[in-house]
Amino acid sequence: MTDASINTQAKGFEREAGFGDYFALLKPRVMSLVVFTALVGLLAAPAPVHPMIGFCAILFIAVGGGASGALNMWWDADIDARMRRTKKRPIPAGRVTGGEALAIGLTLSGFSVVMLALATNILAGFLLAFTIFFYVVIYTIWLKRSTPQNIVIGGLAGALPPLIGWVAVTGEMAVEPWLMVALIFMWTPPHFWALALFMNSDYEDAGVPMLTVTHGRRTTRTHILVYTILLAVLAVGAGFTAIGGPLYLVVSVALNALFLVGALRIWRRDERDSLADGCAVEKRFFRLSLAYLFLHFGAILAEALLKPFGLGGWA
């Protein structure tokens, strides 16, 4: 990926880049998910953490997540320019150069990893470095353009923040944060495949081998249903572990019932149904998937915060 090839696609600079354009490189919406799940992992850990250390840990994890976003936009600028959903991003819109995005991404990556290791522990710093590497090299550069399993395998990068938050406090691995990782990992495919069902032309135009492009929309609908069933088993089952509790279990059962109904509706539809209502069912499922993850992690956080008062968890 060169600056020349990226800038050729932009129809001239629309305006001079501002702070908002550089901040957009960090994918703030994705960063909000990284911050929240990492915070839950940090606060659910069975050890006290000094508020300043906790703040620094979340800050540097967020910066690392933003760095990944900038490097992703640098590499994907050519396909971003061909997709309606992404063509207004800073690089394809011509407001930021690829070289600037690369420099920002690399600088913030190194800064976040070193500072997290210094503020907490080396293992947390290593996990953040691995997460950035996995997202940029394994997912963005390799998997995204080569296999319809890009979202399935690449989803590991987005699933690791709660583990990093936990390790930042404890300095060691445990089963509980890996359950949180598994929850995000299994949620990612149905979430993105629902998006692909109503944005399929974008992926076709960009040459991205999303499942809808390589195997068709019928197969994608079946995959969404299967992954949603597996996700429901995992999510509800987690309610009986150390990160769960009565509150989490109630929230999880309700959410997974809604999610399963949504996935079943998607599976039953054909393309005539989608064309008739503008993919309304798929879009509702996608919006529900956003609430699904935030509410599950919100319930995990609530259980952790209630434990000191003898109210959270099963103890």
UniProtKB/TrEMBL annotation:
<dbReference type="GO" id="GO:0048034">
    <property type="term" value="P:heme O biosynthetic process"/>
</dbReference>
<dbReference type="InterPro" id="IPR000537">
    <property type="entry name" value="UbiA_prenyltransferase"/>
</dbReference>
<feature type="transmembrane region" description="Helical">
    <location>
        <begin position="96"/>
        <end position="116"/>
    </location>
</feature>
<keyword id="KW-0350">Heme biosynthesis</keyword>
<comment type="function">
    <text>Converts heme B (protoheme IX) to heme O by substitution of the vinyl group on carbon 2 of heme B porphyrin ring with a hydroxyethyl farnesyl side group.</text>
</comment>
<keyword id="KW-0812">Transmembrane</keyword>
<feature type="transmembrane region" description="Helical">
    <location>
        <begin position="30"/>
        <end position="46"/>
    </location>
</feature>
<comment type="pathway">
    <text>Porphyrin-containing compound metabolism; heme O biosynthesis; heme O from protoheme: step 1/1.</text>
</comment>
<comment type="similarity">
    <text>Belongs to the UbiA prenyltransferase family. Protoheme IX farnesyltransferase subfamily.</text>
</comment>
<dbReference type="GO" id="GO:0005886">
    <property type="term" value="C:plasma membrane"/>
</dbReference>
<feature type="transmembrane region" description="Helical">
    <location>
        <begin position="181"/>
        <end position="203"/>
    </location>
</feature>
<keyword id="KW-0472">Membrane</keyword>
<dbReference type="InterPro" id="IPR006369">
    <property type="entry name" value="Protohaem_IX_farnesylTrfase"/>
</dbReference>
<dbReference type="InterPro" id="IPR044878">
    <property type="entry name" value="UbiA_sf"/>
</dbReference>
<feature type="transmembrane region" description="Helical">
    <location>
        <begin position="150"/>
        <end position="169"/>
    </location>
</feature>
<keyword id="KW-1003">Cell membrane</keyword>
<protein>
    <recommendedName>
        <fullName>Protoheme IX farnesyltransferase</fullName>
        <ecNumber>2.5.1.141</ecNumber>
    </recommendedName>
</protein>
<comment type="subunit">
    <text>Interacts with CtaA.</text>
</comment>
<feature type="transmembrane region" description="Helical">
    <location>
        <begin position="288"/>
        <end position="306"/>
    </location>
</feature>
<feature type="transmembrane region" description="Helical">
    <location>
        <begin position="52"/>
        <end position="75"/>
    </location>
</feature>
<feature type="transmembrane region" description="Helical">
    <location>
        <begin position="224"/>
        <end position="243"/>
    </location>
</feature>
<dbReference type="Pfam" id="PF01040">
    <property type="entry name" value="UbiA"/>
</dbReference>
<dbReference type="GO" id="GO:0008495">
    <property type="term" value="F:protoheme IX farnesyltransferase activity"/>
</dbReference>
<feature type="transmembrane region" description="Helical">
    <location>
        <begin position="122"/>
        <end position="143"/>
    </location>
</feature>
<feature type="transmembrane region" description="Helical">
    <location>
        <begin position="249"/>
        <end position="267"/>
    </location>
</feature>
<keyword id="KW-1133">Transmembrane helix</keyword>
<dbReference type="InterPro" id="IPR030470">
    <property type="entry name" value="UbiA_prenylTrfase_CS"/>
</dbReference>
<keyword id="KW-0808">Transferase</keyword>
